[in-house]
Amino acid sequence: MGIQSAVLTLLAGALLLTGCTAAAEPETEAPAPALEQVAALGLATDDAQAIVEGLDRLPVDKRPSPDALIASVRPTELVLQPGDVTLPLADAGFYLSIAPYVNQTHPCDFHSLTTCLGELQNTPIELTVTDTTTGEVVVNEITATADNGFVGVWLPRDGEFDVRVVGEQGVAEQRVTTGDTDPTCLTTMQLRA
After folding, report:
1. What's the CA gap between 75 and 94, in Å, rounded?
2. Which of the four, 16, 27, 90, 172, has the lowest number of CB atoms within 10 Å?
3. Any residues with CB less than 8 A from the CB of 35 and at least 6 apart, and which?
4. Using CA atoms, how far apart are residues 113 and 117, in angstroms rounded to an integer?
5. Which residues are CB-neighbours of 104 under 8 A, at least 6 positions away?
6. What does the alpha-carbon distance between residue 161 and residue 158 come to, in Å, rounded to a whole number?
7. What is the DSSP string of 150-172?
């Protein structure tokens, strides 16, 4: 048997052996730790709008610790940590979280669904949001701030709106815009008699 014949025999044997082995299982990535936390809360991990709404309404004592989950609402996406997960919000609209206050507030540009706390928790308010261009009232409801002190609303993108909050403690009004770089957290509405 020549060298060429021996090489061919070895190659043929190798091909036969490979053909009999099971195909390698494709590697699957483990879900990001942030998505595991979201799933543990009973929220769909592929629905950014549902995650935003679910986390914002979550009682404060049920929130995951900041080292387990940080969820930040940006103008066009939801950012989850740890794991660097980004979910688009474009179809849902612009999510604005409003924390009216009387005595104390905090600076905030992008609302953290897991760490932000407003002063007036579980407080009844009347909320009105009016499109400044058309005069159309896009939100008009009697509601209450959630356990975190915020009330969240979905607004049309790329607009300008007048926000009015009326509570037992007084009234506050402020103009906001909903562009790709605008804040999603409104903590500067002080209720005054």
Report:
1. 6
2. 27
3. 45, 80, 83, 85
4. 9
5. 119
6. 10
7. -EEEEE-TT-EEEEEEEETTEEE
pLDDT tens, residue by residue, 126-177: 999 999 999 999 999 999 999 999 999 999 999 999 999 999 999 999 999 9
Instruction: Compute how many other C-beta atoms are within 10 angstroms of the C-beta atom of residue 6.
Output: 10
Amino acid making up residue 129: V
Q: In the sheet that 151-155 helps form, which strands lie side by side, from edge to edge? A: 151-155, 94-98, 185-186
Predicted model pTM: 0.82
Tokens 């804040």, located at residue = 183
C-alpha 169/C-alpha 95 separation (Å) is 25
Residue in this structure with the two tokens 């474009």, named with its chain if needed: 90
- What the block records as the tokens of 171 is 């009234």
Residues 36 and 13: their CA atoms lie apart, in Å, by 46
Sign of the alpha-carbon torsion through 114, 120, 124, 126: negative
Q: Over 80: is that where the pLDDT of 18 sits?
A: no
| CA distance linking residue 119 with residue 187, whole number of Å | 10
Q: Please state, in angstroms and rounded to a whole number, the distance separating the CA atoms of residues 76 and 178.
A: 10
44 three-class SS: coil
